[in-house]
Amino acid sequence: MKVRLGLRTITILLFLLLITVSMGIVYRFFLHKQQEISSAFDKNNFDSSFSKLNFKTAQDSLIAKEVLKQYGEMRVLVKMANQEAKVYSSVYLLLIILLSGIIFIIIICMISRPLIEMREATESIKRGDFSVHLKENGIAEMKELKRSFNDMSHELYTIQNRLLIAEKEMIWKDLSRILAHEIKNPLTPIQLTIQRLEEIYNSDPKKFAAIFPESIHIINQEIENLRQLSQEFSHFAKINQPQLEIFDPAEVVREIIGSYRSEYQFITDIKDDLKINFDKMHFYQIVTNILQNALDVSTKDTPIEISLTQNHGFVILTIKDHGTGIEPDDLHRIFEPYFSKKSRGTGLGLALVKRLLDANHGFVRVKSKVGDGSQFEILMEASNEDTDH
């Protein structure tokens, strides 16, 4: 089994080896000096030399002087040995410090260089470049760290590509749902008008001739709305860049109501000569979506109340139904995409209303009571200009 030592273990072993070798060298040096001094003392044998002297003759005095001289030389030798030991100890201590510093610098470089590479690679990932790849070199720990980083980078790159594909698919799915929902609104009055024509054609040909021009006008109007819808969705990305124009909203509201009058009842209070600076197609979509929701929860005998007024610099369109109402817990969620309590609802109508109003700097307020119906108020800034642009 192959044992791999980590950086921390290698560093500790290097320091232990350095200290052990240095201490061994110092110890051997001191031991050698001690042996030299001991050998010199043994060689001179001061004790035996002094024991033979009785200091009664001049020769004894000369011998004593010689012994003392040798003793003095030995003291000088010992002093020099001590000084030499201090110098060598200082030199060895300095070498240990230098070698330790060099090892420390090498280890710091071995760690800091890969960390700098990691920091630069992390900055690249932060900028959204998940294709970054590090060379898997250096010490064992750094190799493992770089390998893990490369695995993470590759995984993020793969996830990014999957998310981009999923996002594109989701955009197309949302677009198709919204388009299908918006196409349904003009088709409803077309279907109602054609059914009415069929019924009257068989029962009262004279009345058929009277209502035929109005019915054709409604059908042509809704077909034109469908055409504009298709054009609008071909530029779906520009939904936040509405084509603003100044117009009277009363005309559009009356046209929309006229498409449903044959089947539903309306109570209207629509003021003329009001002006708003709004995208006209967006306004049509907003009104039809809210009105369609009101019709879905109303019966043919229950009137829809619609008013158009101006107050405090705002043109206010109010659409009120007397249907089932909205639960209090659901009221704050009705503008969320795909939220719907209707069995056939897509949950996109009111979400689109909110988005279109935001794009045109409009607002919506909702009041609802379960069992008593709902009231939607659309607030749009009034325009004081009289000419379209």
Q: How would you describe this structure in keywords?
A:
389 residues; alpha+beta; Heat Shock Protein 90; five-stranded mixed beta sheet
The assigned structural class equals: alpha+beta
Sketch the major β-sheet. Answer: 5 strands, mixed
Helix content: 55-70%
| Relevant CATH superfamily of the domain at 241-389 | Histidine kinase-like ATPase, C-terminal domain
The order of strands across the largest sheet is 2-4-5-7-6
Supply the number of helical segments. Answer: 8
The percent range for strand residues is: 5-15%
Mean pLDDT, rounded to whole units?
78
Rounded to the nearest angstrom, the radius of gyration is 50 Å
CATH architecture of the domain at 241-389: 2-Layer Sandwich
Give an overview of the whole structure.
The chain is 63% helix and 11% strand. Among the domains are: 123 residues; 149 residues, 2-Layer Sandwich (Heat Shock Protein 90), CATH 3.30.565. The chain is of the alpha+beta class and 389 residues long. It contains eight helices and seven strands, in the order αααααβαββαββαββ. A hairpin with a 3-residue loop joins strand 6 and strand 7. The radius of gyration is 50 Å and the shape is rod-shaped. Helix 3 runs parallel beside helix 4, helix 4 packs antiparallel against helix 5 and helix 6 packs across helix 7. The mean pLDDT is 78. The strands form two sheets. The protein has a five-stranded mixed sheet, with helices on one face.
